[in-house]
Design brief:
Shape: globular
Largest sheet: 7 strands, parallel
Radius of gyration: 20 Å
Structural class: alpha/beta
Number of strands: 12
Number of helices: 13
Length: 360
């Protein structure tokens, strides 16, 4: 990659902040981090970069055309990496409007400004520019137990307001490439886990609840299957796509770790039993509470990541067994900070989402 800066949107969120930390550790080029700082954005994720001249934070919204135009023209980045999104399925069920505003309208505004900026570039700068859009495997819908994994050519069939909004944004990215020639790249990843994840998601929710001896909520029968991708592996894949991916292409990124939700929860409980046994030696799994299922809950996701392995030489380095142990240990080591995140408005959200599911 060029030593010119990159513009990262949504860089204070879970995957975005991990990507920024990874980028700074592996590249000399600077970056501009544009984040709205909604409930899921946390600058403490990036506290190690305080006063680092290669990280510039700007608070703002990708829907703010004037701001995005100003940033592009001032910093002249060689790439835009778009993490900015509302990303929680349950929240999209309760309130889909914000998902349309950020994921659809916001991506459109960002693409529009990127196109105008790119069209004004000359020669090598124009040829080198890339717009990398970060999406999800949820756009492909749900798989049966024996169905083949999602490939880059799997038809879209989103089943939640969240996945529908991401599908719409993917289509916009594709259209800007085919219609205007904007050199876009799209990645569709499986379920990420690792440090700095907001505690509404399954793994941090289970860890924090267990350590506080609270019920461990599991939707339905717990047999919904997800492919789990360690966030560090995701970041390494994104760096490869940005540097060597072919414009206009889609790359699926998976962890090759299909697990049922109940397997994940039991694995976390077993690690905690080992690392921090309860005073009465009561296993953490005794806290598991099966609750009313999520509406329209997709049964299984699985990613076929052979294209990115074949074309770019990427494979996940982390096995689930090692990655989940690292993740649980990280949350134990950062308990105080994560509990402060999981307070206030977050507690209100828990009441909204779980009060009618047999768990108060």
């Amino acid at each position: 990659m060029s030593k010119k800066p990159i513009l990262v949107t949504g860089g204070a969120g879970f995957i975005g902040s991990n990507f920024i930390l990874d980028w700074i550790a592996n590249h000399d080029s600077p970056l501009i981090n544009l984040d709205k700082l909604t409930y899921a954005g946390n600058l403490r994720n990036l506290s190690s970069l305080k006063n680092n001249p290669r990280h510039t934070f700007v608070k703002g919204d990708i829907n703010d055309q004037a701001l995005v135009e100003k940033l592009l023209n001032h910093y002249k980045p060689c790439a835009i990496i778009n993490f900015a999104a509302e990303s929680h399925v349950d929240r999209s069920i309760h309130g889909p409007r914000e998902f349309i505003q950020t994921n659809v309208n916001g991506t459109f505004q960002l693409l529009s400004e990127a196109r105008a900026y790119w069209e004004g570039l000359d020669g090598a700068d124009k040829a080198a520019f890339r717009f990398l859009h970060i999406s999800t495997d949820e756009v492909y819908g749900s798989l049966g137990p024996n169905d083949p994994a999602f490939t880059e050519t799997t038809s879209y069939a989103p089943n939640s307001p969240y996945s529908a909004s991401k599908a719409a944004s993917d289509h916009l990215v594709r259209a800007f490439y085919h219609t205007y020639g904007l050199p876009t790249l799209t990645s569709n990843c499986s379920n990420n886990y690792g440090p700095y994840q907001f505690p509404e998601k399954l793994i941090p929710l289970i860890v924090l609840n267990a350590l506080n001896r609270k019920p461990l909520p599991v939707y339905g029968d717990g047999l919904n299957v997800r492919d789990w991708l360690y966030v560090g592996d995701h970041c390494s894949a994104l760096r490869l796509i940005l540097s060597r991916g072919k414009a206009g292409e889609v790359y699926n990124i998976g962890g090759c770790n299909e697990k049922t939700n109940i397997e994940v929860v039991r694995a976390i409980c077993a690690i905690l039993d080992e690392l921090k046994p309860s005073s009465g030696m009561v296993p953490y799994a005794s806290l598991i509470t099966f609750i009313k299922d999520r509406p329209g809950h997709d049964r299984r996701y699985a990613i076929d990541a052979r294209k990115i392995e074949r074309e770019l030489g990427w494979k996940p380095a982390e096995r689930f067994e090692t990655g989940i142990r690292k993740t649980v240990q990280w949350y134990m080591d950062n308990m105080d900070g994560e509990e402060s995140v999981a307070s206030g408005e977050y507690q209100k959200w828990l009441d909204i989402n779980y009060s009618d599911r047999g768990m108060s």
